[in-house]
């Protein structure tokens, strides 16, 4: 029996270990919001990974949150492919009264596993760490480097993965084990932004008649009313995008500009002198944040320049941020899949070997941290167990058979990819 066959057999033979690990991960109440509650789970994973031969590093993220990186150095890393596996340990907020089980205890009923995070995405993380443990138990050494990132912040638009990749962590190929129903997925991108209108002067509301009446003589404006110019410009651009843009795997009109939140005014006795509009922009995988935001700014500024008041008081723009909770802004870059990349082809081959069919390549209807790998030019795919319908849902569940199938696919892929010669060899 080959080492690879032994590994795949071990996935089935020791599946109770997988369930014990998943139950332990779910027991950590890492809801976001409120966030700032992941130190304990990261230390648990750190201890487990250290015991099976990984070199680990924890990095403070926010007060109460940590990022964890781990690496098992290959026996011939210079000549064989490296692999990076990524997942987030934060989970969606829970309304306990809506659950029929304890959301922070794994419950196994028939084929279904219940618990907060089984689909999004502690199921994927447990699969990775379980495979690492089996490699250790079977004494299997990989020629290529095997790396793992346990990140924080995905649920709140916080840049945990971005932070690690910006620090230089990389690999020849990466798999983000987020919710994909065992499909190979890329994604469109998302960026939030603030558009601000500000008057150079503040006026009592008793001046309104002089502002709006013929002959009033006061050159002033209500910023809430002037924001209508901005919103109408955004609507026209959104409609134009829907007519002119397409991308395989997406229905027409996925490029959207949502006016999500507006704030303005001081008091009923004042003319609003500052108004801010918070927007959420979705864009296709072949587009990037800079181009999209420049296009929006051009559209809004063009509309403002034909308004007799706004042309002298142009709107300003603030884009993105590293946290919805702290910065009130987020960025999820897009990810295009490269079906011809050797990593994708190897994963496809292992999928067919284990599942007995070809995988489905498509695009996620949501976003995950996978886009950051594309942003930093690391070939990657989002591939994980669980369905989007279950992510964030009450009574979140996951098919145990799907989790086992995923684990076998990933075990086979890890073995084959880290045993394949790199381009420099």
UniProtKB/TrEMBL annotation:
<comment type="pathway">
    <text>Amino-acid biosynthesis; L-lysine biosynthesis via DAP pathway; LL-2,6-diaminopimelate from (S)-tetrahydrodipicolinate (succinylase route): step 3/3.</text>
</comment>
<dbReference type="GO" id="GO:0009089">
    <property type="term" value="P:lysine biosynthetic process via diaminopimelate"/>
</dbReference>
<dbReference type="Pfam" id="PF07687">
    <property type="entry name" value="M20_dimer"/>
</dbReference>
<keyword id="KW-0862">Zinc</keyword>
<dbReference type="InterPro" id="IPR011650">
    <property type="entry name" value="Peptidase_M20_dimer"/>
</dbReference>
<protein>
    <recommendedName>
        <fullName>Probable succinyl-diaminopimelate desuccinylase</fullName>
        <ecNumber>3.5.1.18</ecNumber>
    </recommendedName>
</protein>
<dbReference type="InterPro" id="IPR001261">
    <property type="entry name" value="ArgE/DapE_CS"/>
</dbReference>
<dbReference type="GO" id="GO:0009014">
    <property type="term" value="F:succinyl-diaminopimelate desuccinylase activity"/>
</dbReference>
<keyword id="KW-0378">Hydrolase</keyword>
<comment type="similarity">
    <text>Belongs to the peptidase M20A family.</text>
</comment>
<dbReference type="InterPro" id="IPR002933">
    <property type="entry name" value="Peptidase_M20"/>
</dbReference>
<feature type="domain" description="Peptidase M20 dimerisation">
    <location>
        <begin position="219"/>
        <end position="305"/>
    </location>
</feature>
<keyword id="KW-0170">Cobalt</keyword>
<dbReference type="InterPro" id="IPR050072">
    <property type="entry name" value="Peptidase_M20A"/>
</dbReference>
<dbReference type="InterPro" id="IPR010182">
    <property type="entry name" value="ArgE/DapE"/>
</dbReference>
<dbReference type="Pfam" id="PF01546">
    <property type="entry name" value="Peptidase_M20"/>
</dbReference>
